[in-house]
Amino acid sequence: MSTEHHHATSVSLPPESAIAKAYASMNLADAYSIELPTGASTNPELLARFIFAHQAPWVSRLMAVRDAIVAGFGLKTAKHLASLDAQSGAGRLGIFKLYSTSPTEVVLGEDDKHLDFRLSILCSGQSSPGAKRRLTLSTVVHCHNRLGRLYIFLIAPFHRLVVQSNLRSAARVGWPSATEA
Questions:
Q1: 164 within domain boundaries
Q2: 164: nearest Cα among 44, 17, 30, 12
Q3: Are 95 and 107 a contacting pair, CB within 8 Å?
């Protein structure tokens, strides 16, 4: 298998993404793209579930540290958000609220008192024969106040590492096949 299938590349926020214009002002906007191998699913919701189910163990430990810190500020923790998923199941994908789905994109996110964010899992290239099929995971953040701006300043480097790690981990495990969609 090509190493390209395991390499997450920083790219511009895709203009066709539903989150490209989600906020009038953005305090963070980034996107990472990875090639999907031939035969892999291009169902964005299935791929999102797969990515979050195959995170490296250090990501969970980092989230536990984050939760311990932010709980003191009255912010939503992953544990709290996971309990919402367990209670309702509908309209959530793990800790994230599901905002929209289309044949090529799923938009997830959460709103809190310090900031709002949206994640996009966008699949491209499947409509062009012979084109490389890519998955792009994009994030946009809008901060409401100083706490939000401080939070995103501190968390942004970790966020970027987590996104890249999540894409590489999913690629190493092996993307779900198109027949699983």
A1: yes
A2: 30
A3: no
